[in-house]
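ingest -> validate -> predict -> emit
validate: passed (alphabet ok, no gaps, 125 aa)
predict: started
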Amino acid sequence: MENKKAIKLVDKILEDLEKTGINTDILIEDIKTLRSYALEEQIPLVVKVLRYTYEHIEKNNSFLIPIPDDEPIDDEENTELTTNNEVAVDPIESLKYLISLTKSLKNRMNISDLKEYRDALMEYK
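emit:
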């Protein structure tokens, strides 16, 4: 995101996650504020991912989505194998990664990972 306030908020969220972990009250408010900046900048992917993120945290009191794999998966058979395997999830690290992706949206890999988070959050519901 281009907004300096949004960048500062991303840094604050990352710092809070590092210090206190997933403190749902403050975290959800900060994510909602960050989402409003994404709305102003008209970045629909980020708006959607952030909404799904805070709704997921509200529902589960944690962030249960793993960090996307580094390797792109092309065929459907591999996708099924990946989704059926249990993946160890570090909620704080995964959430920190998701939030940090919103800082640099010119990077294609960040956009790709945000799309993977979006899809995983939609499937989790």
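Residues 4-20 form the longest helix (17 residues).
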